[in-house]
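User: Structure please.
Assistant: Input sequence and predicted structure:
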Amino acid sequence: MTLHETPNWEQDGRDWPNREFSHFVSAGGLRWHVQQMGEGPLLLLLHGTGAATHSWRDFAPMLAERFRLIAPDLPGHGFTTTPSYERMSLPGMAAAIGDLIETLGVTPDLVLGHSAGAAILLQLCLEGRIAPRGLISLNGAFMPWRGLPAHVFSPAAKLLAGNSLVSRVFAWRAGNRREIERLVASTGSTLTPGGIDFYQRLIRYPSHIRATLSMMANWDLTRIEQGLAHLQTPLYLVVGEGDLTVSPREACRVRDRLPSAELMTLPGLGHLAHEEQPAEVAAVVRQIAKRLGLFEQS
């Protein structure tokens, strides 16, 4: 089997979820894959490390009934081109998303980030590049690793990210369906076979693997931890009770630094809660938006 480097829109995107709402935008030196749908208050969605817009496949159409949605593939993920290694840091990713928002000429009313996507949005809020009415963190990765992982994880990721052979080996292993199933199960979530298919489709490409590893290697959350106390945007911590990727206890650490943050628990759901039970998570988002006064009174 010939191993290609990057996903191809005409081939891999032929049946991409919500493809009819996809388009490509040039911003900040990157070619972005962006999905836009719906009418209403503007909601910006950012997926987490290693995912792409496919993760919103059922969730986004439910929210599009009340919101205008914008959901990009993060740099190096899915069908968005990859920036230099240095730009895969938290400030670099935030700057890239900021450039995209400015190019689109939009002002988000509400933002929602899953995992690392939440950290990117929080960084944008702290920098003043966006000023939404609220920030929803879905199993957000805000806090630095503690103990041994902090001294092992980042250096290991740097080593792996810098080795092109490693990303190709990971991509080759993605041909084994059981490997992908184990990877998804390790998040504490249970997905349908179709949901697993999209992860397998992306992980078989070295560019997607390299972007994931580069984010992990560059991810310094110390600035987020230090900046939490200065966050002016209302923060809603929506947490899957069974999340095995970002411990639910981390949300408590966030509240220790930002007591105004509101914690909402999703019983029985894991890290990919929005893929497991999209209707349940969408209902939480609508509830928050209503409390923020984003919906006109009927």
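The domain at 9-291 is CATH 3.40.50.1820 (Rossmann fold).
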